[in-house]
C-alpha cells in the first residue's frame, strides 16, 4: 500500500478506477486508415485527427518503421533540434515552415512551437497581461484554459457560444481593463460545432477588444485554401491573431501562432514555452512544410471529407437518437468531428468495446474531458476513409443499439 507523501496520488488513482475513468496508454501501430493493437487485431481507425489522410498516405507509401528510424533521418534531416529556437534550434526547415504558414494564413509572420498545446497555452499566457481581462468559452480546449490560468489577467468564463453573455460583460466592464481578450476555439473538439466568429469579432470591434482564435481543428479542413474557420467565414482580415496545430490535418507535429509581425516578435522575446523548450524536431518541421505548401491544392480531399461528414451526420441523425439535439449549420454539417452522445460512462465504454470487437476503433470520451452526463463516442473522420467504411460503421452502431448487452436478437 502506498503511504506517506504519495498517498494522495494513490487515492486519486483509486477514485478514477472506481469511477471507471482511469486512463491508459496502449501501444498501437498505424497502417493507412487501420489501427493495429499489440495483439495484432486490426481495427478501422475512427479515433485520430488525421483529417486529410496525410498520416495514412505516408504509412501506405513509405511503410512504418517499427524499429525506431525515421525517413527524415535517412534523408539527412536531423531527428532533433538539440536546443531552443532562440539558441541554435531554429533551422532552415523551421524558417521555411514559418514563412509557408504566414503565406497560407495571409499574415505578416508566424512562429513555430514544439506542440499545439505549447502554442495555445504560451500565446494566451504571454499576450494577456496584468490589468487585462480574458473572456473564455466554457468549452475551450485545456491548452487555452491553462494559458488563461498562467496569465496575469483576470479571466471570466462565458457559457458556450453565448454572444449575449460576452456582450453584457463588455458593456458593463470594458472600462475596468487595459485590454480585453475574447479567447475561443474555432471548431470545438468534442462537439464539432463552431464559434460564432462574426458576432464575436463585431463585439470586439465595438468594445476595442481583441479576438484570439485557436484553429486546431479547422486548419487544413475548412476554407477554400484550407486555412481554417476564419477563412471559411470570410474573417481572416479581421481576426489578426490565430493559433494552429501541425499535428491534425497537417499530419505531423508542433503548433504555430500567426499574426502581425509585432505580435510574433513579442512572443519570441517573452513567451516562456517557446524560449525554454527545445525547438520542434527538424524532421517534423520539414514534413509539415511539405504539407502546408500543398494544402491549397488539396481541395478534392476537403470536399471528400465534407461529404463523408455530412453523410455520417445525416444517417446518425435520422437513424439513431445519439446526435446532439440542435440544428447544424451547413458549415458545421461538414466538420469531421461527429459526437455520439450516450450519457453514462458505462454505456460509452460498452459501445466502444463492442465496436472494437467488430473491427472499429471509436474511443469513449468521458468526464472530466466532457461534462457529466454527456459521455460519448467521438467519431473522427478522415479523407482516408471511404463512404463504405462510414456506412459499415454506422450499420454496426445501429445493430448494437438494437441489441444491447443482455438482449438477444429475435429468432
Automatic annotation (TrEMBL):
One of its GO terms (molecular function) is pyridoxal phosphate binding. Residues 93-396 form the Aminotransferase class I/classII large domain. Its EC number is 2.3.1.47. GO terms for biological process: biotin biosynthetic process. The keyword Hydrolase does not apply. InterPro entries: Aminotrans_II_pyridoxalP_BS, Aminotransferase_I/II_large, AON_synthase_class-II, PyrdxlP-dep_Trfase, PyrdxlP-dep_Trfase_major, PyrdxlP-dep_Trfase_small. Pfam families: Aminotran_1_2. This is 8-amino-7-oxononanoate synthase. The lineage of its organism: Bacteria, Pseudomonadati, Planctomycetota, Planctomycetia, Pirellulales.
Amino acid at each position: 500500500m502506498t503511504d506517506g507523501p504519495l498517498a494522495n496520488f494513490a487515492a486519486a488513482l483509486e477514485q478514477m478506477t472506481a469511477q471507471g475513468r482511469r486512463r491508459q496508454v496502449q501501444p498501437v501501430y498505424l497502417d493507412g486508415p487501420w489501427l493495429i493493437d499489440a495483439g495484432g487485431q486490426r481495427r478501422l481507425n475512427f479515433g485520430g485527427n488525421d483529417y486529410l489522410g496525410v498520416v495514412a498516405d505516408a504509412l501506405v507509401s513509405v511503410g512504418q518503421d517499427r524499429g525506431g528510424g525515421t525517413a527524415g533521418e535517412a534523408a539527412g534531416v536531423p531527428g532533433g533540434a538539440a536546443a531552443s529556437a532562440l539558441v541554435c534550434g531554429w533551422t532552415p526547415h523551421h524558417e521555411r515552415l514559418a514563412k509557408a504558414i504566414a503565406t497560407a494564413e495571409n499574415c505578416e509572420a508566424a512562429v513555430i512551437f514544439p506542440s499545439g498545446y505549447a502554442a495555445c497555452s504560451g500565446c494566451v499566457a504571454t499576450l494577456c497581461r496584468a490589468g487585462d481581462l480574458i473572456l473564455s468559452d466554457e468549452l475551450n480546449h485545456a491548452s487555452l484554459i491553462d494559458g488563461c490560468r498562467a496569465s496575469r489577467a483576470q479571466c471570466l468564463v462565458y457559457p458556450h457560444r453565448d454572444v449575449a453573455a460576452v456582450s453584457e460583460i463588455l458593456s458593463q466592464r470594458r472600462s475596468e481593463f487595459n485590454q480585453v481578450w475574447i479567447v475561443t476555439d474555432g471548431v470545438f473538439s468534442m462537439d464539432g460545432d463552431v464559434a460564432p466568429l462574426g458576432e464575436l469579432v463585431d463585439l470586439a470591434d465595438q468594445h476595442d477588444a481583441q479576438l484570439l482564435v485557436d484553429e486546431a481543428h479547422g486548419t487544413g479542413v475548412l476554407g477554400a485554401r484550407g486555412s481554417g474557420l476564419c477563412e471559411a467565414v470570410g474573417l481572416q482580415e479581421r481576426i489578426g491573431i490565430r493559433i494552429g496545430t501541425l499535428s491534425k490535418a497537417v499530419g505531423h507535429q508542433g503548433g504555430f501562432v500567426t499574426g502581425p509581425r509585432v505580435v510574433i516578435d513579442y512572443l519570441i522575446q517573452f513567451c516562456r514555452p517557446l524560449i525554454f523548450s527545445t525547438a520542434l524536431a527538424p524532421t517534423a518541421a520539414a514534413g509539415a512544410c511539405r504539407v502546408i505548401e500543398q494544402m491549397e491544392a488539396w481541395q478534392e480531399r476537403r470536399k471528400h471529407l465534407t461529404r463523408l461528414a455530412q453523410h455520417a451526420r445525416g444517417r446518425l441523425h435520422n437513424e439513431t437518437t445519439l446526435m446532439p439535439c440542435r440544428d447544424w449549420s451547413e458549415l458545421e454539417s461538414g466538420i469531421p468531428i461527429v459526437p455520439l452522445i450516450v450519457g453514462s460512462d458505462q454505456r460509452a465504454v460498452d459501445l466502444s468495446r463492442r465496436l472494437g470487437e467488430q473491427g472499429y476503433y471509436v474511443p469513449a470520451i468521458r468526464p472530466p474531458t466532457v461534462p457529466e452526463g454527456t459521455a460519448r463516442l467521438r467519431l473522427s473522420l478522415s479523407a482516408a476513409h471511404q463512404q463504405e467504411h462510414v456506412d459499415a460503421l454506422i450499420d454496426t452502431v445501429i445493430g448494437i443499439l438494437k441489441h444491447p448487452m443482455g438482449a438477444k436478437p429475435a429468432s
